[in-house]
Specification:
Helix content is 38%, strand content 18%. It is an alpha/beta fold. The chain folds into two domains: 167 residues, Rossmann fold (3-Layer(aba) Sandwich), CATH 3.40.50; 163 residues, 3-Layer(aba) Sandwich (Rossmann fold). The chain has a seven-stranded parallel β-sheet with strand order 3-2-1-4-5-6-7, with helices on both faces. Strand 8, helix 7 and strand 9 form a beta-alpha-beta unit. The longest helix has 20 residues. It is globular. It starts with 8 loop residues before the first strand and ends in a 5-residue tail after the last helix. The relative contact order is 0.13.
């Protein structure tokens, strides 16, 4: 079954909850084809919980640390443990989103490391990663030059798991949580700002989070997902669905407002209008805004403008139809990213 494949042993390094979703269909595909796939992980937010919930055995090599000094210490710890695990029997290939936690160990082991990434402003991490990667795979909308072998594809990370061939929204998930899928409701998401690309950045103030939620609640229910403890005024709005089911909730939402670029993109590919709150854009959210009108980026300091835009969409009866129509245009321009990724890795020259 694997006679025509160049890779038979893959190490997949998963360091963030979103990366679980990105790789899980590929992991299942590779294993069904008879390949050996080892999973190593990082203790950040819900990463380990998600891996466990999907039944994946994994080896945790480090826990998230804060600040440049903390992230540097974690980098050394993580890669040293990775190197020790495989110095006697290296795999054919390493794969990771971002790549910073694997590329140097892979170089020492004389094995290729394929990096998937979509975040341009992670300048320091990219500078110490890309030159050591065997290939850097990005969406075609990636807006910065890449030093080394750069491979692009027409799609977004989120289409590795939310492409219609991979995901069908299930209203029963919402009904089990006491939510009527046909009702108007909104999803908000707040991040912890401790990723390497978040150093020195910040998001919405607690007061503005509360203001947005209160305004939206005039038009429907509000559900909040957060990497950090919620302000007391928002605690009762915590999302009632499991972490593994959040995309079913998002798919039926009328609007997403939040600090997570990933969830903004998830909303866009699901045909849900998104307000992405950040001082820095991404190639993919910029494209989803300019080409499809599905995402609007706004700065955290522009609180009144965020409230106005969110209210405009929240009370609109036509936005759902518009967003679903634009999603069809987006899908016609994009590929099933898992299909592309699995083929690329399987046939990668590992010599």
């Amino acid at each position: 079954m694997t006679a025509d494949l160049k890779c038979r042993h893959i190490v997949c390094d998963i360091s963030h909850p979103a990366h679980v979703h990105f790789f899980r269909n590929a992991i299942d595909h590779w294993r069904q084809k008879g390949l050996r796939v080892d999973i190593v992980s990082r203790d950040k937010d819900l990463t380990l919980e998600l891996l466990d919930s999907y039944g994946y055995r994994h080896t945790c090599l480090s826990r998230v640390r804060r600040g440049i000094a903390g992230l540097t210490l974690e980098l050394v710890e993580h890669e040293w443990r990775l190197y020790k695990m495989y110095r006697r029997q290296p795999p054919d290939i390493f794969v990771q989103i971002g790549g910073t936690l694997v590329v140097h160990a892979a170089r020492l082991l004389r094995r290729p490391a394929v990096v998937f990434y979509d975040t341009e402003h992670a300048a320091l991490a990219n500078a110490i990663t890309y030159p050591f990667a065997s290939a850097v795979c990005t969406p075609s909308c990636y807006s910065r030059p890449v030093r080394g072998r750069h491979v692009t594809y027409d799609g977004y990370h989120e289409l590795a798991y939310l492409h219609p061939s991979r995901f069908v929204p299930n209203p029963a998930v919402l009904e089990a949580a006491g939510i009527n899928p046909s009702d108007r409701f909104f999803v908000m998401r707040f991040v912890s700002w401790d990723s390497n690309h978040d150093v020195g950045m910040h998001g919405l103030s607690a007061a503005m989070k509360v203001s947005i939620a209160k305004m939206l609640s005039k038009y429907g229910r509000v559900f909040v997902s957060s990497e950090t403890p919620l302000p007391s005024e928002l605690a009762e709005l915590a999302s009632p669905v499991k972490a593994t089911e959040i995309h079913h909730l998002l798919a039926f939402a009328h609007l997403y407002v939040g600090e997570s670029a990933t969830m903004a993109s998830e909303s866009a590919v699901l045909g849900v209008s998104a307000i992405f709150v950040s001082d820095v854009g991404r190639g993919y959210t910029d494209e989803q805004e300019k080409r499809y009108g599905l995402c609007t980026r706004m700065r955290p300091a522009d609180g009144s403008a965020i409230l106005k835009k969110a209210q405009e969409i929240a009370q609109s009866d036509s936005m759902t139809t518009f967003a679903k129509s634009q999603r069809e245009n987006l899908l016609s321009d994009c590929i099933d990213v898992t299909d592309w990724m699995t083929g690329f890795v399987e046939q990668f020259d590992v010599r």
